[in-house]
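Re: weekly structure request thread

Next one in the queue (486 aa):
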Amino acid sequence: MEISLKLENDIRVIQPAVDFVYRWAVDCGLSEKEAQEFATAFDELITDIVLFAFEDKGEFFVLLSDSLSQLEITVHELGEPFDPERHRYSIQKVLNENNFDGAGFEVIGNLVDDFIYLYKGRAGKEFRIIKEIKHKHITQILTEKQLSTEPEKAVGYQISPVTEEDAEDIARLIYRSYGYTYPKEDMYYPDRIVNALRQGKKFGVIVRTDRGEAVGYFAVIMSTDSNIGEVGEVVVFPRHRGKGIMKMMMKALIDMAKNKGLLGLFGEAVTVHTISQKVNAKYGFKSTALVLGFFPYAKYKGFEHKQQRISVVIDFLPLKERKQLKIYLPEEYKNILKDIYRNLGIDVENIPVRKSPQLKERSKIELQINYRFGNAVIVVKKYGKDMLDRVAKKLEALYKKDIKGIYIDLPLDHPYVKQAVPQLKKMGFIFSGLMPLFHNERDFLRMQILREKLDFRHINVFSDMAKRIKRFIHREMNKNGIPQKG
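Done, posted below.
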């Protein structure tokens, strides 16, 4: 959930805003002490903005967002330029010169888990403060004996929709099946599973033996900005694989998604192996993109694989028929995009552009950073004259933060995409694929920059379309002189 606030640089707004943040933080799962620390950090930040960022009247924007594991506040303002690197707090300056410059930022950094500053040029300044939500790991709830005891052989299986009461059994099933290697860390915390279900962030099914032991789990995570979902959490206990459990769960999930009115489902299938891709293909999912190095290296239990960042294939299952579509296809990628659409059963008409499109001054761009995975997605919601300049500024900031995988999503329903692609290629972006209905029920072209070498021989893809996309990307990298391993 996200909450947006627009505040004036008036000292009278500070206390009500801080009180609201405190109450919000408690409601989202922080203890009263942690919420007070978070609110105090926010107080320090916006007080500095109100008192020092503007010469005259102005306004700034606050975005509150929560996930299952953390709270984040983003503050964006267009006040006077400021470089925090030139105002670092120094205890020596305090003792020797009575100089407290930078003390406010030092206080904020000590009260939160992460404090991030982004200078965005003409787009202003952005501050982010992050506080982790502390939940109990499944290993803190159950004993080693309870965790290591394997489910008995079953005579039969029962499938049912997941409820909050299933959370502990799901976390135990994840731990029993994967140890500590499952990539979605939230799944080891029953309280986070409960919160996700309670907030409608996901829905799923659980399979139990005739003795009531959980041996299968599969869930759809709802997209935050479009009416689609990700088949993103799945586990079948090793001893019970090959019994038709995966088939049973996938069919149930697709039926549930249709009943909920979702427009489509997608999967991010890792290329360490092709098992997930094969399952997706069996149920009608079509490959639309290859996202290089999306996750950091992790050892997958039962698989030996190259120690490099993990790429994913985007597989998409349309749940509502779209037979024809008129969009703008960039010249560089029009043929492969047509093939991807054709594979989805969609006949595409490429709209010609005879003159430069009229653009507003400001673009609408969102930046999604995952520091744990070392990746960032730039989502262009609306093109503007400043788009390329803003993307360049974001790239510069992301490079400084050592973000490894950077991806940009471009809407295909506006003619400017044809002008934007050649310019983005000059910045180092290459093709990734099609992201159907990914934001606001619109189709997007994804391009990518990976700042680590990959050995393409260890990127395993299954479908013919995924193989074509992989070859296309590999050729583009070779043509652009992008270094690779191997």
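The mean pLDDT is 89. The domain at 138-317 is CATH 3.40.630.30 (Aminopeptidase).
Next request, please.
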